[in-house]
Amino acid sequence: MRISTQMMYDQTMRGVTNAQSAWLGYGEQMSTGLRVNRPSDDPVAASQAVVLSQAQSQTSQYALARTFATQKVSLEENVLSQVTTAIQTAQEKIVYAGNGTLSDDDRASLATELSGIRDQLLNLANSTDGNGRYIFAGYKTETAPFTDGADGVSYDGGNTAITQSVDASRTMTIGHTGTQVFNTITSNALAEPDKTDPETDLFKMLDTAIAALNTPAEDLDDDKKAELTAVIDKTNRGLKNSLNNVLTVRSELGTQLNELSALDSLGDDRAVDQKTQMSSLVDVDWNSTISSYTMQQAALQAAYKAFTDMQGMSLFQLNK
């Protein structure tokens, strides 16, 4: 087989090009810190890295969602803590109002105090977060949920509680409606002696008690006085039921905060595991890469030397 000068040149030049390409490839890996910089570097690892990257993005999104949920739940729990204190104070006033020796002035003074507690509760029911969104309005966060009118306090908020996906298979309530907090009683609520339905509206029961306390009792007959006493007793039962409902909601919020904390820990572990997997797929093995870079650099220098020597082996130059 005859070997021409052109064939020798092409073969040697190909060796130089291949050596240079491999050397530059290792150099790119060292500069980026990645073994896989494009799908052609390792098609299998590249495809697995795409799937893993999507999982990492989802993990990050759920972590952000849990941060938002924790803020919302913590804020609601803080407001309901104040609601609990206000209801307990109202209970104390109602129990004292049941004292039959009170004068009309005493009763009127209690009514004034209860009015202040009622207004405080109304203000808490219309609480907003740091962005001006109403906490107990459901999805109608732009409108105050409770309105105080001539017929008492009415609820104008949404009827659907705000929920949030906090993990792949977990969705929780992060914003109760005003109805769930201020106009609901639990299944084990105190029943009325006459078997009628218990009052559920916290504001209505307070308004009824305030009106009763503002009614002068000195000029009333025994039947009217008994009716006023019955109103106070019913309000006392109603406040117990309302307090029990608020405490139930708070218990739910506390459980959710614990769950969010646990999910955060699991999410952190998952993120670390995913990062480790991604590193094993695409990151550089520095010891191997540096060694290969050095060896390929030597191979490239040898290829250059061979190419230089080849130039001096032309048949024409040999005939000189």
From TrEMBL:
Main location as per UniProt: other
Domain Flagellin N-terminal, residue spans: 3-141
Gene Ontology terms, MF aspect: structural molecule activity
Compartment list: Bacterial flagellum; Secreted
Gene3D superfamilies reported for this sequence: f41 fragment of flagellin, N-terminal domain
Matches recorded under SUPFAM superfamilies: Phase 1 flagellin
Cellular component terms (Gene Ontology): bacterial-type flagellum hook; extracellular region
BP terms from Gene Ontology: bacterial-type flagellum-dependent cell motility
Pfam families recorded: Flagellin_N (PF00669)
Keywords (A to Z) from UniProt: Bacterial flagellum, Cell projection, Cilium, Flagellum, Secreted
InterPro entries (UniProt xref): Flagell_FlgL (IPR013384), Flagellin (IPR001492), Flagellin_N (IPR001029)
Entry annotated with the keyword Secreted: yes
Similarity field: Belongs to the bacterial flagellin family.
Name of the protein: Flagellar hook-associated protein FlgL
Lineage: Bacteria, Pseudomonadati, Pseudomonadota, Gammaproteobacteria, Enterobacterales
